[in-house]
Design a protein that fits this description.
The chain is mainly beta. It has 2 domains: about 240 residues, Glucose Permease (Domain IIA); about 210 residues, Sandwich (Immunoglobulin-like), CATH 2.60.40.1930. It is built from 5 helices and 34 strands. Strands 2, 3, 5, 6, 7, 8, 10 and 11 form an 8-stranded antiparallel beta sheet that branches. Strands 13-19-18-15-16 form a 5-stranded mixed beta sheet, with no helix packed on it.
């Protein structure tokens, strides 16, 4: 029976293995009929334990000596049990774009097989084992790799997937300045410490024993907080990238425990932990997650419409291909073809799914089916292509699929309408997309099945009588026919403003946030409207999470219109945030 924790003893491993490069080999012994094993994206293995444990212990000791870190008091019983006491972790990534689709995929887990040997094959099925007795790992892998989706280089370029602290603690080690677009890293990077981890953060948690590691982040995105500073769960640490020994944008998240007393010597500390417990081969007696991510987690990664045939994309076929040609569009006319693409996560059961496309009046326009014959976890079925004719009605169409027990929808238009006036009761999943403005008197009843979207390039006005009852979901944004491109948002676009309706008072429904001009040379205007008096504050943060502009909360009559001057600030993306009551709405602005 396997030990409850994976003991990583430096001397034994140094004799046993050579350092493994980041580009893993395809599974040499795989049966061709089985799902293809994707290439490795990470070169972080337990071979680096000697260095990392020594470095962390020395960092902790230095912080203690300087008075920047005060270790918690641990009695002898707590010290004896420290290795088996889980820290409660939240998921270490956050998507700041409020998408309806998943934006990452679990790729590699901790290798729990103690029989791994140095045979030059990372994926020999007899030598690897993840916590669910599967092969989603490689020899000696000591952490969890979370790949950005649906197009990893675009996600990295958009800088919208933030790395956040999984639990409270103190930063004890950080490193920045490494190139963050590695796709075929050289041996000089993969075999060098700490260069193989790229831009990273290490947090020592409140038990005084457990540390979490966050690796491969974007250069100069690391938090401005210093070693010795405290972070809370959910605090910004950096942006997921591909620095160090990495083949594609992802986060390597790792947990080690046993950093109790540096006087014990570093070889007695830093035991690797697999935080997963809900699997047939799990070694941890209880989960270290607040909500443990499931091993199979079926979800839609993107649904999109394109004006031309998008380039085919095979996950992992070429990690270095950063120029996949896509033609995202949501506005079409008679005579044009609509190219429809959907990407799946963990579609493993070989089932057939049905896609439906509905006309503006809710009746069926087109329907088709797709099947995943090989059970690939990152499957992209062939695109569907349909053409509009002059007989097809004008308005907003809904492209939808139900997968993994959840219904997903994407909206596009034929002959985009300039404006809409809406009234009456509305239910189900429904979207309205225009090029100018939407004015609504609608009533949305309080059920989780109701998810209503207003998408207007100009503005959304919620008129007296509008009501969204507690329990529904309502979104109003300034991405209509001309700006909205689903998961392919250009950096310069105004960010979606999301309002999750929690009460039935119409005057508390959020009407959207506009930032213009966007991009900006440094001076821009923030516009936010409501249908009565409201109190709100404005904050602008850079990509390090630092506040660069703020106005305190004050009262506004129907509309907040605030001119912001960031002239002289570095070029890049800034996050504009409105806080009004218990509602928080954000938008990105590009300074160039």
């Amino acid at each position: 029976m396997k030990n409850k924790l994976i003991t990583v003893h430096a001397a034994a491993f140094i004799k046993k293995i050579k350092y493994l490069l980041c580009i893993g080999l395809l599974l040499a012994f795989a049966n061709a009929a089985l799902a293809q094993k994707e290439k490795n994206i990470c070169g972080i293995t337990s071979a680096y334990s000697t260095f990392v444990n020594k470095r962390v212990v020395e960092k902790i000791a230095a912080l203690k000596a300087s008075g920047k870190y005060k270790a918690p008091l641990l009695n002898s019983m707590k010290q004896a049990n420290a290795l088996a006491t889980p820290v409660s972790f939240r998921f270490p990534l956050a998507d700041i774009r409020h998408r309806d689709y998943a934006s990452w995929r679990m790729f590699n887990y901790v290798d729990l097989d103690p029989t791994s040997i140095d045979d030059g094959i990372n994926y020999n099925p007899n030598e690897i084992e993840d916590y669910n007795c599967g092969d989603r790992t490689y020899d000696y892998h000591s952490g969890i790799d979370i790949l950005l989706e649906p197009y990893y280089w675009k996600e990295k370029a958009d800088q919208s997937i933030w790395v956040i602290a999984a639990a409270p603690g103190v930063i004890v080690d950080k490193h920045d300045g490494a190139f963050d677009e590695q796709c075929d890293p050289p041996a000089s990077i993969c075999g060098s410490e700490p260069d193989n981890r790229g831009n990273y953060i290490v947090i020592l948690h409140d038990d005084g024993s457990t540390a979490s590691f966050y690796m491969h982040m974007i250069q100069n995105s690391i938090t401005s907080k210093q070693e010795g500073d405290r972070v809370n769960a959910g605090d910004y640490l950096g942006i997921a990238g591909s620095s160090g020994c990495s083949s594609a944008p992802h986060l390597h998240f790792e947990v080690r425990t046993g950093y109790i007393d540096e006087g014990l010597g570093y070889e007695a500390t830093g035991t690797v932990v697999d935080p997963f417990a809900n699997g047939s081969c799990a070694v941890s007696p209880s989960s270290w997650w607040i909500n443990e991510p499931p091993y199979d987690d079926p979800a839609i990664l993107t649904m999109d419409t394109h004006s031309a045939d998008p380039e085919s994309f095979v996950e992992g076929s070429d990690w270095c291909d950063q120029t996949v040609l896509l033609y995202p569009d949501n506005t079409f006319s008679a005579g044009q073809n609509v190219y429809m693409r959907t990407k799946f996560r963990d579609w493993r059961d070989g089932s057939t799914v049905t896609f439906n496309i509905y006309k503006p009046d809710g009746t069926l326009w087109r329907s088709y089916t797709k099947t995943n014959p090989g059970g690939s976890r990152g499957f992209i079925p062939s695109d569907a292509i349909y053409g509009f004719t002059s007989l097809d009605p004008v308005g907003t169409y809904r492209y939808t699929v139900t997968f993994g027990g959840k219904t997903y929808s994407h909206y596009f238009t034929k002959d985009c309408q300039p404006s809409l006036g809406l009234s009456g009761a509305v239910s189900g999943q429904k979207g309205y997309m225009v090029s100018n403005f939407i004015s609504s008197f609608q009533t949305i009843s309080g059920t989780s099945a109701n998810y209503i979207k207003y998408m207007a390039d100009g503005h959304v006005t919620l008129s007296p009588g509008f009501r969204a009852t507690s329990g529904c979901r309502f979104v109003a944004n300034t991405e209509g026919c001309n700006n909205s491109t689903s998961s392919f948002n250009k950096i310069a676009e105004t960010e979606t403003a999301v309002a999750l309706v929690k009460d039935n008072a119409a005057d508390k429904i959020q009407t959207g946030l506009t930032v213009f001009p966007n991009p900006s040379a440094g001076v821009f205007t923030v516009r936010y409207s409501n249908n009565q008096k409201f109190t709100a504050s404005v904050t602008v943060r850079n990509m390090l999470g630092q506040v660069v502009y703020a106005i305190a909360a004050r009262e506004f009559q129907n509309e907040l219109l605030q001119r912001v001057n960031l002239t002289g600030k570095p070029k890049g993306i800034y996050l504009v945030e409105i806080l009004s009551g218990d509602k928080r709405i954000s938008s990105k602005v590009l300074i160039q």
